């Protein structure tokens, strides 16, 4: 069965500190992984997808097939990064399976 | 930037009543989806829709649920007889292709069943 695990419900860091939001997945096929962000009361927005290997707003994520992980990282957190972050796995290319989400709070 | 629009943003309904949640997808998108998120739980896939028919649905999407695109622009989710456990945030998404990386999500409708 496909599953996405985000072990932390809440991650609180100080501004300027490094951030790592953890994501592990379980899927027998070839995974397509995404990070979505939801700022307060706003829509789910695509932040990153592993295929593109890009950096958005300073965030990066590397797919590690050996550890079945897709952790989201940023070297220096900013206050405007405070949001809910969801890791998601694409199943059969179209449907998304989401993790439970991690609230990131960046304190000044 | 084009947006997926959902109305209403919040709907309160009595248990047993029918409710229709509305979504206006991005105009050139062909694939449409509904997801829901019960408070404190994961975002879950409900249904995908293409070419005026359901292409896939989850076990959550039982006979109480239906979707349609009545006028070529709106994409609706109907719950026939609401239950307390239907209370959730419902997200609509649309995509040009049937690929997850192409999704654009709406801002959601919070449904509260009392």
Average pLDDT taken over every residue of chain B: 93
Radius of gyration of chain A: 13 Å
What share of residues of chain A is helical? under 10%
Q: Averaged pLDDT of chain A, please?
A: 91
Q: Per DSSP, what share of the residues of chain B sits in E-state strands of 2 or more residues?
A: over 45%
In helices, the fraction of residues of chain B equals: under 10%
Low-confidence stretches of chain A: none
* Beta strand count of chain B: 11
Backbone shape of chain A? globular
Residue fraction in strands of chain A: over 45%
SSE order of chain B, one letter for each helix or strand: EEEEEEEEEEE
Q: Which terms summarize this structure?
A:
heterodimer; A: 108 residues; mainly beta; 3-stranded antiparallel β-sheet; 11 strands; globular; B: mainly beta; 7-stranded mixed β-sheet; 50% strand
Write up this protein.
The complex is a heterodimer of chains A (108) and B (114). With 108 residues, chain A is mostly beta strands. Chain A contains no helices and eleven strands. Chain A has strands spanning 3-5, 10-14, 19-21, 24-26, 32-38, 45-49, 60-61, 72-74, 83-91, 95-98, 102-107. In chain A, the strands form three sheets. In chain A, strands 2, 5, 6, 9, 10 and 11 form a six-stranded mixed sheet that branches. Chain A has a three-stranded antiparallel sheet with strand order 3-8-7, with no helix packed on it. Chain A has a two-stranded antiparallel sheet with strand order 1-4. The model of chain A has no long low-confidence stretch (mean pLDDT 91). With 114 residues, chain B is mainly beta. Chain B contains no helices and eleven strands. Chain B has strands spanning 5-7, 10-13, 19-24, 31-37, 43-50, 53-57, 65-68, 75-79, 88-95, 104-105, 109-113. In chain B, the strands form two sheets. In chain B, strands 2, 4, 5, 6, 9, 10 and 11 form a seven-stranded mixed sheet that branches. In chain B, strands 1-3-8-7 form a four-stranded antiparallel sheet, with no helix packed on it. In chain B, strand 7 (65-68) and strand 8 form a beta hairpin. Chain B is globular, with a radius of gyration of 13 Å. The N and C termini of chain B lie far apart (36 Å). At the A-B interface, strand 5, strand 6, strand 9 and strand 10 of A face strand 4 and strand 5 of B.
